[in-house]
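Hi V.,

You were right to ask for the full record rather than a summary. Here it is.
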Amino acid sequence: MNNHTPLEKKDLVSYLEDGCKPVSQWRIGLEHEKFGFIIDEDTLKPMPYEGPYGINMLLKSLAQEPYAQAIYDQENIVGISYSDDARSITLEPAGQLELSGAPLKSVTQVHQEITRHVKDLQKLQDGQRNFGFTPMGYNPKWSLHDIPLMPKSRYNIMRKYMKSVGTRGLQMMHMTSTVQVNLDYNSEQDMRSKMYVSTILQPIASALFANSPIEMGKISNYLSLRQWCWLDVDPHRSGLLTMAMDKSISFEKYTDFILKVPMYFIYRDGVYHDVAGQSFSTYLQKGFPHLKNINPILQDWKDHLTTAFPEVRLKQFIEMRGADSTDKDMLCALPALWVGGLYNSSALSDLTDLADTIKPSDLVAARQDIVTHALQAKIGKRTVQDIAKEMLSIASRGLEEQMPDDLTQGHNYLEPLLDIADTGITRSQRLIDEFKALNYDVDALLHAHDLLQNNDY
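Predicted structure:
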Protein backbone atom coordinates (compact mmCIF):
# COMPACT_ATOMS: atom_id res chain seq x y z
CA MET A 1 0.00 0.00 0.00
CA ASN A 2 1.41 3.40 -0.90
CA ASN A 3 0.98 6.49 1.22
CA HIS A 4 -1.62 7.97 -1.14
CA THR A 5 -4.09 5.09 -0.88
CA PRO A 6 -6.71 5.75 1.82
CA LEU A 7 -6.30 3.43 4.78
CA GLU A 8 -9.41 1.44 5.70
CA LYS A 9 -10.38 -0.85 8.55
CA LYS A 10 -10.05 -3.92 6.32
CA ASP A 11 -6.39 -3.05 5.82
CA LEU A 12 -5.86 -3.08 9.57
CA VAL A 13 -7.54 -6.47 9.91
CA SER A 14 -5.51 -7.80 7.00
CA TYR A 15 -2.30 -6.72 8.70
CA LEU A 16 -3.03 -9.07 11.61
CA GLU A 17 -4.16 -11.84 9.25
CA ASP A 18 -0.86 -11.54 7.41
CA GLY A 19 0.85 -12.70 10.59
CA CYS A 20 -0.35 -16.27 9.95
CA LYS A 21 2.62 -18.54 9.24
CA PRO A 22 2.93 -22.25 8.46
CA VAL A 23 4.23 -24.35 11.34
CA SER A 24 7.57 -24.76 9.58
CA GLN A 25 8.12 -21.00 9.90
CA TRP A 26 7.19 -20.64 13.56
CA ARG A 27 9.88 -18.92 15.56
CA ILE A 28 10.67 -17.77 19.12
CA GLY A 29 11.50 -14.18 20.02
CA LEU A 30 12.67 -13.17 23.50
CA GLU A 31 12.74 -9.61 24.79
CA HIS A 32 14.35 -8.84 28.11
CA GLU A 33 15.07 -5.67 30.03
CA LYS A 34 17.53 -4.91 32.84
CA PHE A 35 18.39 -1.94 35.03
CA GLY A 36 21.78 -0.32 34.50
CA PHE A 37 23.88 1.12 37.30
CA ILE A 38 27.29 2.77 37.53
CA ILE A 39 29.84 2.58 40.33
CA ASP A 40 30.86 6.00 41.63
CA GLU A 41 33.39 5.80 44.50
CA ASP A 42 31.90 2.51 45.67
CA THR A 43 28.40 3.99 45.59
CA LEU A 44 25.91 2.76 43.04
CA LYS A 45 23.94 5.25 40.97
CA PRO A 46 21.34 4.64 38.28
CA MET A 47 22.92 4.67 34.84
CA PRO A 48 22.36 8.10 33.25
CA TYR A 49 22.07 8.88 29.58
CA GLU A 50 25.18 11.09 29.43
CA GLY A 51 28.59 10.54 30.99
CA PRO A 52 31.58 8.24 30.47
CA TYR A 53 29.59 5.17 31.52
CA GLY A 54 26.19 6.40 30.43
CA ILE A 55 23.71 4.86 28.01
CA ASN A 56 24.78 7.27 25.25
CA MET A 57 28.39 6.09 25.24
CA LEU A 58 27.40 2.46 25.71
CA LEU A 59 25.11 2.52 22.66
CA LYS A 60 27.67 4.39 20.57
CA SER A 61 30.25 1.73 21.43
CA LEU A 62 27.85 -1.07 20.49
CA ALA A 63 27.14 0.70 17.21
CA GLN A 64 30.78 0.10 16.20
CA GLU A 65 30.26 -3.67 16.17
CA PRO A 66 29.84 -5.55 12.85
CA TYR A 67 26.32 -5.38 11.38
CA ALA A 68 25.27 -2.79 13.97
CA GLN A 69 23.49 0.42 13.03
CA ALA A 70 22.61 3.22 15.43
CA ILE A 71 18.98 4.28 15.86
CA TYR A 72 18.47 7.97 16.57
CA ASP A 73 15.66 10.07 17.98
CA GLN A 74 16.58 13.47 16.62
CA GLU A 75 20.23 13.91 17.75
CA ASN A 76 20.13 11.24 20.47
CA ILE A 77 21.13 7.63 19.96
CA VAL A 78 18.37 5.46 21.44
CA GLY A 79 19.02 1.98 20.09
CA ILE A 80 20.88 -0.43 17.85
CA SER A 81 19.62 -2.58 14.99
CA TYR A 82 21.55 -5.52 13.57
CA SER A 83 21.37 -6.38 9.88
CA ASP A 84 22.65 -9.94 10.23
CA ASP A 85 19.90 -11.48 12.35
CA ALA A 86 17.13 -8.94 13.12
CA ARG A 87 18.19 -8.35 16.72
CA SER A 88 17.83 -4.89 18.18
CA ILE A 89 18.70 -3.11 21.39
CA THR A 90 16.26 -0.48 22.56
CA LEU A 91 16.13 2.05 25.34
CA GLU A 92 13.22 2.06 27.77
CA PRO A 93 11.93 5.19 29.58
CA ALA A 94 14.31 5.13 32.56
CA GLY A 95 17.33 3.57 30.94
CA GLN A 96 16.26 -0.06 31.11
CA LEU A 97 18.23 -1.67 28.31
CA GLU A 98 16.23 -4.15 26.26
CA LEU A 99 17.45 -6.84 23.91
CA SER A 100 14.74 -7.59 21.36
CA GLY A 101 15.86 -10.93 20.09
CA ALA A 102 15.81 -12.26 16.56
CA PRO A 103 13.16 -14.83 15.56
CA LEU A 104 14.89 -18.12 16.41
CA LYS A 105 14.11 -21.81 15.93
CA SER A 106 14.84 -23.18 19.40
CA VAL A 107 15.20 -22.26 23.05
CA THR A 108 18.86 -23.26 22.81
CA GLN A 109 19.38 -20.62 20.13
CA VAL A 110 17.70 -18.09 22.44
CA HIS A 111 20.19 -19.07 25.16
CA GLN A 112 23.07 -18.55 22.73
CA GLU A 113 21.71 -15.12 21.79
CA ILE A 114 21.52 -14.06 25.44
CA THR A 115 25.08 -15.26 25.95
CA ARG A 116 26.29 -13.23 22.98
CA HIS A 117 24.50 -10.11 24.21
CA VAL A 118 25.98 -10.35 27.71
CA LYS A 119 29.47 -10.92 26.36
CA ASP A 120 29.09 -7.85 24.11
CA LEU A 121 28.25 -5.76 27.18
CA GLN A 122 31.10 -7.27 29.18
CA LYS A 123 33.58 -6.21 26.49
CA LEU A 124 32.63 -2.58 27.05
CA GLN A 125 33.90 -2.65 30.61
CA ASP A 126 37.53 -2.57 29.40
CA GLY A 127 38.61 -4.78 32.27
CA GLN A 128 37.12 -2.37 34.81
CA ARG A 129 33.94 -2.86 36.76
CA ASN A 130 32.42 0.55 36.10
CA PHE A 131 28.85 -0.47 35.43
CA GLY A 132 26.50 -3.41 35.62
CA PHE A 133 23.00 -4.56 34.74
CA THR A 134 20.58 -6.19 37.14
CA PRO A 135 17.45 -7.93 35.85
CA MET A 136 14.69 -7.62 38.44
CA GLY A 137 11.04 -6.81 37.94
CA TYR A 138 11.20 -3.57 39.94
CA ASN A 139 14.06 -1.21 40.70
CA PRO A 140 14.99 -2.16 44.28
CA LYS A 141 17.10 0.87 45.25
CA TRP A 142 16.05 4.24 43.90
CA SER A 143 12.87 6.27 44.10
CA LEU A 144 10.95 7.45 41.08
CA HIS A 145 12.49 10.92 41.52
CA ASP A 146 16.04 9.53 41.48
CA ILE A 147 15.69 7.87 38.08
CA PRO A 148 17.21 9.66 35.05
CA LEU A 149 14.82 10.03 32.13
CA MET A 150 15.86 8.95 28.65
CA PRO A 151 15.57 11.41 25.72
CA LYS A 152 13.03 9.51 23.62
CA SER A 153 10.31 11.79 22.32
CA ARG A 154 7.52 9.21 22.49
CA TYR A 155 8.13 8.77 26.22
CA ASN A 156 7.69 12.49 26.86
CA ILE A 157 4.20 12.21 25.36
CA MET A 158 3.44 9.07 27.35
CA ARG A 159 4.61 10.60 30.64
CA LYS A 160 2.30 13.55 30.22
CA TYR A 161 -0.68 11.37 29.35
CA MET A 162 -0.03 8.76 32.06
CA LYS A 163 -0.79 11.36 34.71
CA SER A 164 -4.41 11.54 33.51
CA VAL A 165 -5.18 7.80 33.71
CA GLY A 166 -4.62 5.35 36.55
CA THR A 167 -2.19 6.04 39.38
CA ARG A 168 0.87 3.89 38.61
CA GLY A 169 1.67 4.61 34.99
CA LEU A 170 4.85 6.54 35.75
CA GLN A 171 6.01 3.81 38.12
CA MET A 172 5.37 1.22 35.43
CA MET A 173 7.42 3.20 32.89
CA HIS A 174 10.37 4.08 35.09
CA MET A 175 10.58 1.48 37.84
CA THR A 176 9.71 -1.85 36.20
CA SER A 177 11.53 -4.31 33.98
CA THR A 178 10.18 -7.36 32.17
CA VAL A 179 10.97 -10.38 30.04
CA GLN A 180 8.54 -11.50 27.35
CA VAL A 181 8.37 -14.13 24.65
CA ASN A 182 6.81 -13.74 21.21
CA LEU A 183 5.31 -16.73 19.38
CA ASP A 184 3.59 -17.33 16.04
CA TYR A 185 0.17 -18.58 14.91
CA ASN A 186 -0.90 -20.25 11.66
CA SER A 187 -4.58 -19.29 11.43
CA GLU A 188 -7.25 -17.24 13.14
CA GLN A 189 -8.41 -20.30 15.06
CA ASP A 190 -4.85 -21.08 16.16
CA MET A 191 -4.46 -17.46 17.27
CA ARG A 192 -7.74 -17.69 19.19
CA SER A 193 -6.68 -20.88 20.97
CA LYS A 194 -3.28 -19.49 21.93
CA MET A 195 -4.67 -16.14 23.04
CA TYR A 196 -7.24 -17.93 25.22
CA VAL A 197 -4.80 -20.28 26.91
CA SER A 198 -2.05 -17.69 27.41
CA THR A 199 -4.46 -15.03 28.72
CA ILE A 200 -6.10 -17.37 31.25
CA LEU A 201 -2.74 -18.78 32.38
CA GLN A 202 -0.73 -15.56 32.22
CA PRO A 203 -1.33 -14.74 35.91
CA ILE A 204 0.04 -18.21 36.74
CA ALA A 205 3.20 -17.38 34.78
CA SER A 206 3.37 -14.02 36.58
CA ALA A 207 3.36 -15.84 39.92
CA LEU A 208 6.06 -18.27 38.79
CA PHE A 209 8.26 -15.38 37.63
CA ALA A 210 7.65 -13.07 40.63
CA ASN A 211 10.98 -11.32 41.15
CA SER A 212 10.30 -7.84 42.51
CA PRO A 213 9.67 -7.63 46.26
CA ILE A 214 11.95 -4.70 47.20
CA GLU A 215 11.28 -0.98 46.85
CA MET A 216 13.68 1.83 47.84
CA GLY A 217 15.82 -0.59 49.83
CA LYS A 218 12.94 -2.00 51.86
CA ILE A 219 10.88 -5.17 51.62
CA SER A 220 7.47 -4.31 50.23
CA ASN A 221 4.08 -5.93 50.74
CA TYR A 222 4.19 -7.52 47.28
CA LEU A 223 6.06 -10.40 45.67
CA SER A 224 5.60 -8.75 42.28
CA LEU A 225 5.74 -4.98 42.49
CA ARG A 226 5.90 -4.90 38.70
CA GLN A 227 2.55 -6.64 38.39
CA TRP A 228 1.14 -4.49 41.20
CA CYS A 229 1.95 -1.42 39.09
CA TRP A 230 0.13 -2.88 36.11
CA LEU A 231 -3.08 -3.25 38.12
CA ASP A 232 -3.63 0.51 37.85
CA VAL A 233 -1.94 1.91 34.74
CA ASP A 234 -4.63 2.56 32.13
CA PRO A 235 -7.85 0.50 32.03
CA HIS A 236 -8.35 1.32 28.35
CA ARG A 237 -5.18 -0.41 27.20
CA SER A 238 -4.03 -2.89 29.87
CA GLY A 239 -5.23 -5.94 31.79
CA LEU A 240 -6.76 -9.27 30.79
CA LEU A 241 -8.71 -9.19 27.52
CA THR A 242 -12.31 -10.35 27.97
CA MET A 243 -12.54 -11.34 24.29
CA ALA A 244 -9.58 -13.66 24.75
CA MET A 245 -10.95 -15.19 27.95
CA ASP A 246 -14.36 -15.96 26.43
CA LYS A 247 -12.86 -17.35 23.19
CA SER A 248 -14.54 -14.73 21.01
CA ILE A 249 -11.38 -12.99 19.86
CA SER A 250 -10.84 -12.59 16.13
CA PHE A 251 -8.60 -10.42 14.00
CA GLU A 252 -11.52 -8.05 13.45
CA LYS A 253 -12.54 -7.89 17.12
CA TYR A 254 -8.97 -7.20 18.19
CA THR A 255 -8.79 -4.49 15.52
CA ASP A 256 -11.96 -2.94 16.96
CA PHE A 257 -10.37 -2.97 20.41
CA ILE A 258 -7.19 -1.26 19.20
CA LEU A 259 -9.21 1.31 17.27
CA LYS A 260 -10.72 2.39 20.60
CA VAL A 261 -7.43 2.44 22.52
CA PRO A 262 -6.44 6.10 23.00
CA MET A 263 -3.50 7.07 20.82
CA TYR A 264 -0.24 8.56 22.06
CA PHE A 265 1.44 9.92 18.94
CA ILE A 266 1.82 10.02 15.17
CA TYR A 267 5.38 9.74 13.89
CA ARG A 268 6.40 11.61 10.73
CA ASP A 269 9.80 12.59 9.37
CA GLY A 270 11.57 12.17 12.69
CA VAL A 271 8.94 14.03 14.72
CA TYR A 272 6.46 12.60 17.24
CA HIS A 273 3.19 14.53 17.06
CA ASP A 274 1.23 14.47 20.31
CA VAL A 275 -2.33 13.16 19.77
CA ALA A 276 -2.66 11.58 23.23
CA GLY A 277 -6.21 10.62 24.11
CA GLN A 278 -7.51 10.65 20.55
CA SER A 279 -8.92 7.47 19.01
CA PHE A 280 -7.38 5.80 15.99
CA SER A 281 -10.92 5.34 14.70
CA THR A 282 -11.38 9.11 14.50
CA TYR A 283 -7.97 9.48 12.88
CA LEU A 284 -8.87 6.84 10.31
CA GLN A 285 -12.20 8.45 9.44
CA LYS A 286 -11.36 12.13 9.29
CA GLY A 287 -7.82 12.78 10.52
CA PHE A 288 -6.99 15.51 13.01
CA PRO A 289 -7.63 19.23 12.26
CA HIS A 290 -4.33 20.37 13.78
CA LEU A 291 -2.39 17.93 11.55
CA LYS A 292 -3.88 18.86 8.20
CA ASN A 293 -1.17 17.39 6.00
CA ILE A 294 -0.93 14.07 7.83
CA ASN A 295 -3.08 11.16 6.68
CA PRO A 296 -3.26 7.65 8.16
CA ILE A 297 -0.74 5.11 6.84
CA LEU A 298 -0.14 1.50 7.78
CA GLN A 299 2.97 2.39 9.79
CA ASP A 300 0.73 4.46 12.09
CA TRP A 301 -1.26 1.31 12.79
CA LYS A 302 1.90 -0.69 13.50
CA ASP A 303 3.03 2.02 15.92
CA HIS A 304 -0.36 2.17 17.60
CA LEU A 305 -0.43 -1.61 18.14
CA THR A 306 2.65 -1.22 20.34
CA THR A 307 0.84 1.22 22.65
CA ALA A 308 -1.79 -1.26 23.87
CA PHE A 309 -0.57 -3.19 26.90
CA PRO A 310 -2.79 -6.20 27.61
CA GLU A 311 -1.17 -9.07 29.46
CA VAL A 312 -1.17 -10.96 26.16
CA ARG A 313 -0.81 -8.75 23.10
CA LEU A 314 -1.59 -9.55 19.49
CA LYS A 315 0.46 -8.16 16.64
CA GLN A 316 1.71 -10.31 13.74
CA PHE A 317 2.67 -12.66 16.54
CA ILE A 318 1.51 -13.17 20.12
CA GLU A 319 3.38 -11.55 23.01
CA MET A 320 3.37 -13.09 26.50
CA ARG A 321 3.96 -10.06 28.73
CA GLY A 322 3.34 -11.24 32.29
CA ALA A 323 6.80 -12.02 33.68
CA ASP A 324 9.17 -10.02 35.87
CA SER A 325 12.68 -9.65 34.50
CA THR A 326 14.90 -12.26 36.06
CA ASP A 327 18.32 -13.86 36.37
CA LYS A 328 20.09 -15.65 33.54
CA ASP A 329 18.99 -19.16 34.50
CA MET A 330 15.35 -18.11 34.34
CA LEU A 331 15.41 -16.10 31.12
CA CYS A 332 15.10 -19.18 28.92
CA ALA A 333 12.49 -20.72 31.20
CA LEU A 334 9.90 -18.31 29.81
CA PRO A 335 10.18 -19.38 26.14
CA ALA A 336 10.51 -23.00 27.25
CA LEU A 337 7.24 -22.72 29.17
CA TRP A 338 5.21 -21.21 26.35
CA VAL A 339 6.86 -23.10 23.48
CA GLY A 340 6.16 -26.35 25.29
CA GLY A 341 2.60 -25.33 25.96
CA LEU A 342 1.58 -23.58 22.75
CA TYR A 343 3.71 -24.97 19.92
CA ASN A 344 2.75 -28.61 20.56
CA SER A 345 -0.83 -29.43 19.53
CA SER A 346 -1.36 -32.05 22.24
CA ALA A 347 -0.04 -29.74 24.95
CA LEU A 348 -2.16 -26.85 23.66
CA SER A 349 -5.23 -29.07 23.87
CA ASP A 350 -4.37 -30.10 27.44
CA LEU A 351 -3.70 -26.50 28.48
CA THR A 352 -7.05 -25.53 26.97
CA ASP A 353 -8.71 -28.12 29.20
CA LEU A 354 -6.81 -26.68 32.18
CA ALA A 355 -7.81 -23.13 31.29
CA ASP A 356 -11.45 -24.26 30.99
CA THR A 357 -11.40 -25.12 34.71
CA ILE A 358 -10.65 -21.50 35.63
CA LYS A 359 -13.52 -19.04 35.74
CA PRO A 360 -12.50 -15.69 34.27
CA SER A 361 -14.32 -13.89 37.09
CA ASP A 362 -12.29 -15.84 39.67
CA LEU A 363 -9.10 -15.03 37.77
CA VAL A 364 -9.78 -11.30 37.69
CA ALA A 365 -10.72 -11.32 41.38
CA ALA A 366 -7.47 -13.12 42.27
CA ARG A 367 -5.04 -10.74 40.60
CA GLN A 368 -4.43 -8.61 43.72
CA ASP A 369 -3.87 -11.78 45.75
CA ILE A 370 -1.40 -13.06 43.14
CA VAL A 371 0.80 -9.95 43.19
CA THR A 372 0.87 -10.21 46.99
CA HIS A 373 1.22 -13.94 47.58
CA ALA A 374 2.22 -15.40 44.18
CA LEU A 375 1.90 -19.19 44.26
CA GLN A 376 0.07 -19.22 47.59
CA ALA A 377 -2.77 -17.13 46.18
CA LYS A 378 -6.03 -18.83 45.28
CA ILE A 379 -8.08 -18.76 42.11
CA GLY A 380 -11.47 -20.03 43.11
CA LYS A 381 -10.79 -22.98 45.40
CA ARG A 382 -7.39 -23.93 43.94
CA THR A 383 -4.01 -22.49 44.79
CA VAL A 384 -1.94 -20.96 42.04
CA GLN A 385 0.78 -23.45 42.97
CA ASP A 386 -1.47 -26.41 42.17
CA ILE A 387 -2.43 -24.92 38.81
CA ALA A 388 1.22 -24.10 38.07
CA LYS A 389 2.27 -27.71 38.70
CA GLU A 390 -0.29 -28.97 36.20
CA MET A 391 0.64 -26.27 33.69
CA LEU A 392 4.33 -27.13 33.90
CA SER A 393 3.70 -30.87 33.62
CA ILE A 394 1.87 -30.26 30.35
CA ALA A 395 4.48 -27.80 29.06
CA SER A 396 7.30 -30.23 29.90
CA ARG A 397 5.71 -32.99 27.82
CA GLY A 398 5.05 -30.55 25.00
CA LEU A 399 8.61 -29.24 24.97
CA GLU A 400 10.03 -32.75 24.94
CA GLU A 401 7.91 -33.65 21.90
CA GLN A 402 8.26 -30.32 20.10
CA MET A 403 11.94 -29.51 20.62
CA PRO A 404 13.77 -32.58 21.96
CA ASP A 405 17.15 -31.06 21.06
CA ASP A 406 16.56 -28.41 23.71
CA LEU A 407 16.51 -31.16 26.33
CA THR A 408 19.50 -33.14 25.08
CA GLN A 409 22.22 -30.49 25.02
CA GLY A 410 22.87 -30.28 28.74
CA HIS A 411 19.96 -27.95 29.48
CA ASN A 412 16.55 -28.37 31.02
CA TYR A 413 15.30 -24.84 30.64
CA LEU A 414 12.15 -25.59 32.63
CA GLU A 415 14.04 -26.86 35.68
CA PRO A 416 14.00 -23.52 37.60
CA LEU A 417 10.23 -23.27 37.17
CA LEU A 418 9.70 -26.90 38.14
CA ASP A 419 11.60 -26.21 41.35
CA ILE A 420 9.56 -23.08 42.08
CA ALA A 421 6.27 -24.89 41.48
CA ASP A 422 7.36 -27.87 43.59
CA THR A 423 8.57 -25.83 46.58
CA GLY A 424 6.18 -22.90 46.24
CA ILE A 425 9.15 -20.57 46.79
CA THR A 426 9.46 -17.83 44.17
CA ARG A 427 12.54 -15.84 43.22
CA SER A 428 11.01 -12.94 45.15
CA GLN A 429 11.03 -14.97 48.34
CA ARG A 430 14.61 -16.01 47.71
CA LEU A 431 15.52 -12.34 47.11
CA ILE A 432 13.98 -11.41 50.46
CA ASP A 433 15.97 -14.10 52.26
CA GLU A 434 19.15 -13.04 50.45
CA PHE A 435 18.50 -9.38 51.23
CA LYS A 436 18.14 -10.17 54.91
CA ALA A 437 21.35 -12.24 54.85
CA LEU A 438 23.11 -9.24 53.31
CA ASN A 439 21.97 -7.09 56.26
CA TYR A 440 19.52 -5.26 53.99
CA ASP A 441 22.36 -3.92 51.82
CA VAL A 442 20.61 -3.20 48.52
CA ASP A 443 23.89 -2.35 46.76
CA ALA A 444 25.22 -5.80 47.62
CA LEU A 445 22.01 -7.29 46.24
CA LEU A 446 22.41 -5.43 42.94
CA HIS A 447 26.02 -6.58 42.67
CA ALA A 448 25.06 -10.18 43.42
CA HIS A 449 22.61 -10.24 40.52
CA ASP A 450 24.68 -8.25 38.03
CA LEU A 451 24.44 -10.03 34.69
CA LEU A 452 27.90 -8.86 33.69
CA GLN A 453 29.61 -10.41 36.70
CA ASN A 454 28.18 -13.87 36.12
CA ASN A 455 30.49 -15.42 33.57
CA ASP A 456 29.14 -18.95 33.42
CA TYR A 457 27.16 -18.52 30.20
